[in-house]
Design a protein that fits this description.
Elements (H helix, E strand, L loop, with lengths): L1 H5 L4 E5 H18 L17 E5 L3 H9 L10 E3 L8 H6 L4 H4 L1 H15 L5 E7 L3 H17 L4 E8 L9 H15 L2 E6 H11 L16 H16 L16 H9 L7 E10 L4 H9 L14 E10 L5 H15 L10 E6 L10 E10 L2 H18 L3 H5 L5 H19 L5
Parallel strand pairs: 1-2, 1-4, 2-3, 4-5, 5-6, 6-7, 8-9
Antiparallel strand pairs: 7-10, 8-10
Helix pairs in contact: 2-3, 2-7, 2-10, 7-8, 8-14, 8-16, 9-10, 12-13, 14-16
């Protein structure tokens, strides 16, 4: 039986501070709430976590190993350097030449190779990282490229955190530009979480309505934001009854079925996620109405957003009530997300009679993921700000010193402009 459970197992790759902090929250949800029979697409036969944790500084990974309970990381899969990457994509992508740090990429790929060999059938990789930091953006891009070249048959699903629009780093626009271009080229799907939106959702969920002195941003901890992202991942990627075998065994199809359902066109693969979880007696129509409230309606110019495809994952403890409301829920989602008329099957639905997000009581959770044209808003902003800096020659010497030349920037500008054009044309008849 273990052999069958392992057949479609995947490898989790956590890169940089952000990727490992999200991973910490993800593994706490998974190791604490998931049923024993559903663990094996995510854990090895020996019970160790199917994850490789990479960072150029040791502090975050040390904390992760201390706090994740009921699950253990393989020592050889903890890849740590001693120097950061200076919030510089080129520095993270290229690495440095000292003997202790030079092998960070090689060590990661060697650990990855061994994890692949532990699988009966390697199906793909989920990579957690950010667009902003040097390690998450630069080394994350390099690892996507290396994995694609070495294991071309496996899927790559990127879980990516985008920086605050107001600014996390003076280099964030360059880093975002280059990283987005790389994951567009080498990944099959991208779950894109924007920090400003995640902060609003985390503030709403924790009922924290206080604001800072500026009055612009709610006071929300980084842990709460990471927990929200991990909760969305759990809603989407934890085993569902719909995808289990007849004997109720999970074979880990969820990440790859998500890609197949939502990313049928290679030029559009950026996904928006919304989630609502409620306890007690609440109608599914009410839960759906709350979920669609967070969907971006139009771009800054007033052009309405559209969706290429939508996936709804409904989890409700102890009953199958969703099935009674499924038609009305899917109709409401199709209208709210403005699904394109030329896709004959734009809505997909998975269900599970257990709610992993709140297993202790009667509860409902609805996680909705859409290939949505609002991704173009983020990219358009990145393009505008990065182009302004690039034309002024700002900070370019910091990138050129690590081998990032004009060709890399021009390729990235062209790639993102193409993606923006594709998304802008979604609603055009």
């Amino acid at each position: 039986m273990l052999g069958m459970w392992e057949k479609m197992s995947l490898i989790w790759l956590q890169v940089g501070q952000c990727g490992n902090q999200i991973g910490q929250e993800w593994w706490q949800i998974l190791s604490s709430n998931i049923a024993e029979a559903d663990r094996y697409p995510y854990f090895s036969r020996d019970g160790l976590i199917n994850a490789i944790c990479v960072d150029t500084e040791p502090k975050v990974i040390r904390k992760l190993r201390q706090q994740v309970k009921r699950g253990y990381f393989r020592d050889a899969n903890i890849i740590v350097g001693q120097r950061g990457r200076g919030n510089n994509w080129a520095y993270g992508y290229q690495g440095i030449s000292t003997s202790g740090e030079k092998n960070l990429l090689d060590r990661t790929m060697e650990a990855f190779r061994k994890e692949v060999e532990r699988r009966d059938c390697y199906s793909g990789t989920v990579i957690l990282h950010s667009l902003c930091g040097g390690t998450g953006s630069g080394m994350g891009s390099r690892l996507c490229e290396e994995i694609r070249d070495t294991y071309p048959a496996g899927y790559i699903l990127s879980v990516t955190a985008a920086p605050h629009e107001a600014g996390d780093s003076p280099l964030q626009h360059y880093n975002s530009l280059l990283c987005l271009a790389w994951i567009q080229r080498f990944c099959d799907g991208v779950l894109l979480f924007q920090n400003d939106e995640v902060m609003k959702r985390a503030a709403s969920l924790t009922e924290k309505k206080s604001f800072t002195a500026s009055g612009l941003q709610p006071s929300v901890s980084l842990t709460s934001m990471n927990t929200h992202i991990a909760s969305c991942l759990a809603g989407l990627l934890c085993p569902v009854y719909s995808l289990k075998t007849r004997s109720s065994v999970s074979v880990g199809l969820e990440p790859w079925e998500l890609i197949r359902s939502l990313c049928p066109i290679s030029t559009m693969k950026f996904l928006h996620t919304s989630q609502v979880c409620r306890r007690g007696s609440v109608s599914w129509d009410k839960v759906t109405s709350l979920a669609v409230q967070t969907v971006p309606r139009a771009d800054p110019h007033g052009q309405l957003h559209h969706s290429l495809s939508v996936l709804a994952v409904a989890r409700n403890s102890q009953d199958y009530s969703f099935l009674l409301s499924q038609d009305s829920v899917l109709t409401k989602l199709r209208q709210a997300y403005r699904c394109v008329t030329w896709n004959p099957s734009p809505i997909h639905c998975w269900t599970d009679p257990q709610n992993i997000l709140d297993p202790s009581c009667h509860s409902h959770s609805l996680t909705v993921c859409a290939n949505h044209s609002s991704a173009a808003d983020l990219m358009s902003g990145v393009l505008t700000k990065a182009r302004r800096m690039y034309d002024a020659g700002a900070y370019l010497h910091w990138y050129r010193r690590y081998g990032c030349e004009d060709d890399h920037f021009q390729m990235s500008f062209d790639a993102l402009n193409s993606v923006v054009d594709e998304y802008r044309g979604l609603g055009v008849p």
